[in-house]
Amino acid sequence: MGFIQRTLIDRRSHIGGNSYTEDVGGIFVHKYGPHIFHTNSQTVWDYVNRFATFLPFVYRGRARRDDRTYSFPINLETLQQVWGVQSQEEAERKLAEVRVPIENPANLEEWALSQIGEELYHLFIHGYTTKQWQRDPRNLPASIIKRLPIRTLWDDNYYSHKHQGIPAGGYTPIFRQLLEGIEFRLTIASMATARIVCPSGLRPTMPCITSSGTRVS
Ligand SMILES: Cc1cc2nc3c(=O)[nH]c(=O)nc-3n(C[C@H](O)[C@H](O)[C@H](O)COP(=O)(O)OP(=O)(O)OC[C@H]3O[C@@H](n4cnc5c(N)ncnc54)[C@H](O)[C@@H]3O)c2cc1C
């Protein structure tokens, strides 16, 4: 039976990365923005439910632009709000009309224009992306935007996954259980400064410091 030496380090003062939640008087605050757990995999869903009770949650987004509120991500309701279209056929016809023919989109802007055209791009993507990523969308890869759904159906569910929810007690207790038996060091920015002690009697699998202070890489 082999042993694996495991140490988790994080430069933040807590575990859980962006999914970290903080208990503030019984309210589980998602410190880095709200996180919804979503998966199509029954195995993953069953696994994560071993560690927490998930409350059902479906994210139906709304986007405020100038003085109007739109359904988001783009779906038939959004297209009705912008163009007045009433059916999937009408929406697809309109999209086919406005798409900018770009054979091999090289960046985020080109990909968006080739899918939704100038008006929707400027309404929903350009300003938001420039502000969020602090970069010109022409300097960002198309892959960033490709996961955003563009639908011509009355379906405003942000994630199209079968299983979606938010853990009733936040995510941090899940991470705590996953890390049981694993050493973790917080507010440490790199392996070089982690000063991990070499395991006695085992061959080290990561840089560590022996009891005599020698560094093993
Ligand atoms: C506002 C917002 C909302 C989101 N909502 C959702 C959602 O609803 N559903 C969803 O599935 N996803 C959501 N995401 C995406 C989700 O946060 C990420 O996919 C997920 O956190 C990735 O996990 P990770 O462990 O790879 O990275 P992270 O969660 O970013 O964790 C990486 C950790 O590594 C640490 N670290 C990095 N470099 C070093 C270093 N050199 N030394 C020490 N530590 C280091 C960081 O401090 C951090 O704690 C959202 C993201 C944001 C920003």
Overview of this protein structure:
With 217 residues, this protein is of the alpha+beta class. The protein folds into 2 domains: 7-58 and 162-216, NAD(P)-binding Rossmann-like Domain (Rossmann fold, 3-Layer(aba) Sandwich); 61-146, no CATH class. Helix content is 31%, strand content 19%. The chain has helices spanning 42-48, 76-83, 88-98, 108-133, 143-146, 172-178, 191-194; strands at residues 7-10, 21-24, 27-30, 37-39, 54-56, 61-65, 68-72, 163-167, 183-186, 208-209, 215-216. The strands form 5 sheets. It has a 3-stranded antiparallel sheet, with helices on one face. A two-stranded parallel sheet has the order 1-9. A two-stranded antiparallel sheet has the order 2-3. A hairpin with a 2-residue loop joins strand 2 (21-24) and strand 3 (27-30). The longest helix has 26 residues, at 108-133. The model has no long low-confidence stretch (mean pLDDT 91). The structure holds flavin-adenine dinucleotide.
